[in-house]
């Protein structure tokens, strides 16, 4: 009787690392990230569209702006490219962050603030190169083309063919440097702030649980921090992905000089309110959707004889 009681705990303890190891694979994070990205961009795209329009207002008459703003469908120009890119981006972002943080975590899975920032920064670089830059380039050119009355790039297919014809494959990677800097900084700030605030919320919550509304608020705060810290990079990225970027600016560094000389430092904050609105709502949506989807995909579904079967 006594020996059976002693033998039971080792089996339970031994099974936990195996279960945890299975749950830390990247595929559930990839799927959950894709679901989170598709959900948030569908809801928040009008913010993204308005922000991009504001940042591209150089040389566009107020009459054209008013005409476009009066059309509801105008707010969803470039949505197809954006939702595709955001879905892939979010999947890569969460999955790569999951893998990087797993590699950096200590023996008990703990992550310091520095390690969280490093994992977030690396995830941002990964998503920028693999997904964000090409899809953002297509979306931005479509919005700019509509404002300039360029019918060739009104559709995703038209934009892709025009970019390939005029610039070749490298045209999809316009502004890759500012985009990568923005995404890596975004991810580092977002995951860093979210992780630290969630840890504090869990310590102060009952049984380490966080109320869903608190989780939403924490996600929103992390989005606000992203918007405030990386807005100038976002403006440079948008300008360098516009149709006339090569003619007006040439490169990202010259773009900064031209904006400073001709428009002043305030131009680097154009579209800030739209971006604040979008990222605060987006992060409030993405983190809960990601975590609940990930939990759904990784939670054991059956129990037999006291053992967990996945």
From TrEMBL:
InterPro entries: MCP_dom_sf (IPR023395), MCP_transmembrane (IPR018108), TXTP-like (IPR049563). GO terms for cellular component: mitochondrial membrane. This is Mitochondrial thiamine pyrophosphate carrier 1. It holds the Pfam family Mito_carr. The keyword Transmembrane helix applies. One of its GO terms (biological process) is mitochondrial citrate transmembrane transport. It comes from Aspergillus tanneri. SUPFAM superfamilies: Mitochondrial carrier. It is found in: Mitochondrion membrane. Gene3D superfamilies: Mitochondrial carrier domain. PANTHER family: SUCCINATE/FUMARATE MITOCHONDRIAL TRANSPORTER-RELATED, TRICARBOXYLATE TRANSPORT PROTEIN, MITOCHONDRIAL. Its main location: mitochondrion. The keyword Zinc does not apply. Belongs to the mitochondrial carrier (TC 2.A.29) family. GO terms for molecular function: citrate secondary active transmembrane transporter activity. Keywords: Membrane, Mitochondrion, Mitochondrion inner membrane, Repeat, Transmembrane, Transmembrane helix, Transport. Solcar repeats lie at residues 24-103, 114-200, 210-296. It is a multi-pass membrane protein.
């Amino acid at each position: 009787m006594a020996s059976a009681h002693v033998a039971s705990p080792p089996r339970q303890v031994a099974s936990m690392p195996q279960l945890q190891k299975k749950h830390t694979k990247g595929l559930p994070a990839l799927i959950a990230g894709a679901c989170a990205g598709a959900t948030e961009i569908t809801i928040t795209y009008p913010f993204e569209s308005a922000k991009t329009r504001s940042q591209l207002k150089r040389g566009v008459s107020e009459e054209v702006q008013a005409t476009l703003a009066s059309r509801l469908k105008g707010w969803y120009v470039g949505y197809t490219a954006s939702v595709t890119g955001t879905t892939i981006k979010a999947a890569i972002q969460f999955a790569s962050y999951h893998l990087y943080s797993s590699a950096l975590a200590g023996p008990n899975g703990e992550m310091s603030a520095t390690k969280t920032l490093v994992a977030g920064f690396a995830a941002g670089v990964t998503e920028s190169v693999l997904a964000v830059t090409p899809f953002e380039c297509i979306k931005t050119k479509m919005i700019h083309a509509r404002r300039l009355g360029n019918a060739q790039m009104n559709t995703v297919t038209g934009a892709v063919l025009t970019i390939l014809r005029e610039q070749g494959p490298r045209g999809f990677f316009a502004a890759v440097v500012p985009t990568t800097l923005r995404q890596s900084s975004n991810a580092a700030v977002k995951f860093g702030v979210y992780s630290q605030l969630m840890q504090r919320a869990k310590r102060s919550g009952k049984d380490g649980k966080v109320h869903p509304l608190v989780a939403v608020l924490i996600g929103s705060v992390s989005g606000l921090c992203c918007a405030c810290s990386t807005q100038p990079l976002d403006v440079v990225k948008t300008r360098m992905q516009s149709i006339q970027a090569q003619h007006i600016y040439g490169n990202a560094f010259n773009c900064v000089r031209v904006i400073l000389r001709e428009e002043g430092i305030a131009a680097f904050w154009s579209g800030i309110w739209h971006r604040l609105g979008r990222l605060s709502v987006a992060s409030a949506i993405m983190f809960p959707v990601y975590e609940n989807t990930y939990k759904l995909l990784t939670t054991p579904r059956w129990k037999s004889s006291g053992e967990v079967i996945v």
